[in-house]
Amino acid sequence: MNVRVICAVLITLTAGLAAFGQNEQAPIIERQIEYRSWTLKSVRDGSDVELRKAIAGKRLVIVVYFAPWCGNWRHDAPFLQKFYERYKDKGLEIIGVGEYDPVDSIKSSIDYLKVTFPVVYESTDRSARQQTLHYNYRRETGDTRNWGSPWYIMIEPEKIEKKGDILLKKAFVINGEMIESEGEKFIRERLGLQSEGSGSGGSERPVTASADKIEICEPVVKTAGLVKP
Question: How far apart are CA 72 and CA 145, in angstroms?
Fold first, then answer.
């Protein structure tokens, strides 16, 4: 087998794995969870972002944890931005929490994807995976994926604890990619808006994520390029 054939095979396998890894849509489910308030640094300017303050005056806050190198995140980000633009004046807030990569990489990701909603970071190194609250929350809600990107928690302000570190003891979560039409339906219901039928559409795929499924959203390992014969 010559080098060109090997290259073609590698490209095909890589594309196939990427496509499979980006098919991790999961339903919105309610779970017991002790979700704590936090103060994290903004990716854009390094300022403190306090979750309790971000919730004030909102009707729904969606917190999405993501790794910038993950294709699953790149799939969801465009329609999350669309939701943000469409509903931010109606009481919706979306906050991204970057994980497992340097701040510059997280910022490059949101700039490339034209994300304008607030983005903070919890971790900056892939070795921290099992030390993050993100990891603990996913395990608490039954998500056994390796990296868990993206992972969502829906915060309904009228249900939060008024005092203390623990913000919620039960919440709706998504252990995988969001199903776009289901996400928009959930948003509209919590904002008190009438249904728009089947939702935005355009990114619906079979639901494959589950508590016992391991995603193929893995960091890209750079290798030396192949030399042409």
Answer: 12
Cα–Cα distance for residue pair 155/63, rounded to 1 Å: 8
pLDDT tens across the length of the chain (229 residues): 554 544 443 334 444 444 344 578 999 999 999 999 999 999 999 999 999 999 999 999 999 999 999 999 999 999 999 999 999 999 999 999 999 999 999 999 999 999 999 999 999 999 999 999 999 999 999 999 999 999 999 999 999 998 899 999 999 999 999 999 999 999 999 999 987 754 445 555 555 454 445 456 877 654 444 344 3
Question: How far apart are the C-alpha atoms of 90 and 87, rounded to whole Å?
Answer: 5
Which residue in 223, 208, 221 sits closest to 72, CA to CA?
208
* CA atoms of 189 and 202, how far apart (whole Å): 21
Three-class DSSP category at 183: helix
Secondary structure letter of residue 99 according to DSSP: -
Q: What is the pTM of this model?
A: 0.82
Domains in the chain (CATH in brackets) are: 3-190 (3.40.30.10)
